[in-house]
Fold this sequence. Notes:
Elements: H1 4-16, E1 20-24, H2 54-59, H3 61-75, H4 83-93, E2 97-102, H5 108-112, E3 117-119, E4 122-129, E5 135-137, E6 157-161, H6 170-182, E7 185-189, H7 200-207, E8 211-216, E9 229-232, H8 235-256
Parallel strand pairs: 1-2, 1-7, 2-3, 7-8, 8-9
Antiparallel strand pairs: 4-5, 4-6
Amino acid sequence: MSSDRLVIEAAEKIVTAQRVASFTGAGISVESGIPPFRGKDGLWSKYDPDLFEINHFRARPAETWNLLRDVFYVHFDKAEPNPAHKGLARLEQMGVLKTVITQNVDNLHQKAGNTDVIEFHGSSSRLICLDCNTRFDYNDILFDLLPPFCPTCRGILKPDFIFFGEGIPPEALQRAFLEANLADLFLVIGTTGEVYPAALVPVQAKQQGACIVEINPEPSSFTFQVTDIFLQGNAGPTMTALMEMIEKLYRQQTDRS
């Protein structure tokens, strides 16, 4: 766990910043029971990533959908926001945090209460038709027959997140780099910095003069390259300690004004 001095320094930077954005990865959701994709306990250590290649999906949608249903719509759907998600939602409520840019597709930031979430890789909460491009809430689709078909045109539905071989949603890409250009503080949580082009977003923020505060259990690709304050620890307890200090400083600031 990071020292009290670093937590205080990070809290002071966050409270006094003019525009704060957060950039999150799989590590923020691990304490909610969602495994990361990479690493020894990641999804790719258990399942063949080729199943998530878009051409494979188009050729054998039922094969991929058997895995999608079990992982994303049975197991993941039971996950609830943890203290790290809730801390970011509280920062937005306080008027401190402008937006969350997330690589995750689990919808936990929205469940926690964040209203401005840039879903860099899309979301499992929506399905999209490969033929007519109509989007549906996943709760409105039955999964008893796989692959599920579009109620509008009977095309095949896929989760509205990117597969290997697909590009980043243009609006998410544009907004993420816009925030990187505008923010004067980036709060990076639970990401290794190994997935591109997402990993370029904090780098862009740093190049534009933003202070980078990072929360990760171990040093990442960002730590020695762009990070200004590294809070080492798991996302939940570290964010809890940081939020306690932010709330204290925020009260003091409010009392003075």
